[in-house]
Structures are given as structure tokens and as C-alpha cells.
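C-alpha cells please, single chain.
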Amino acid sequence: MEWSKSWKASKQPRKQRSYVYNIPLHLARKLMSVHLVKDLRSKYHKRNIPVRKGDTVKVLSGQFKGKTGKVDKVQLKFKRVFVDNVYTLKRDGSKKLYPLQPSNLMITELNLEDKMRKQALEKK
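Here you go.
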């Protein structure tokens, strides 16, 4: 199924998954939104914001629950986030970053080096 701008919704999970898998990258960024911690939520009057490299996040669920770290890499194509403190051990003993879903994360500290992001957050 090709992605369509006019598609609204479906009850069928297979169509919902198809929509997400085939979404263009410039729109997939919105799917990478992560909840903000309560003090940031009250400061910026936003519930969530797209995650970026350099943000500090906390893992809310899964085998790495409770771990915090900086975002090392964001993959829009696969809708995954890699955190520097979250990794698995390979059989040869080396460490490999573990891909996390954005829905299982919470931003505790924002990376505000980018002026455009800072302006977007401050306007209401």
C-alpha cells in the first residue's frame, strides 16, 4: 500500500502499520515525539516534542527501564532512538547500541543549541 496524503484512518491494524511504514521522512519526524518531564511540560506548555541528538532521556519501559542517557542517534527510517547508556553485549564481548521506541522514553533535558528549536519551543 502506497502512502497517501488523503488517508484519514482505519480500524485495521495492518493498514495503520502500512501507513507508518510508508510515511515520508519529513512527516515521520512527528512520529518521533517523546513526552516531556513535568517541569519542562509546564515551562514550554507542550506535552511532547520530537526527540533530537543531544537530548537527555529516561527509559520508561522495557529491559532498560529507569536508565538515563543522552540520545546518540535517531533513525527516522526505522522510527528508533539510540541512547548512549543503553546497549547490549555481543557474543564477542563488544557493545552495541540498543534501538528504543520513542513511546518508551521521556525527555528530562533538552538540547537547545539549535536557535530554531529554541524559538519554536518559546513561542506559544
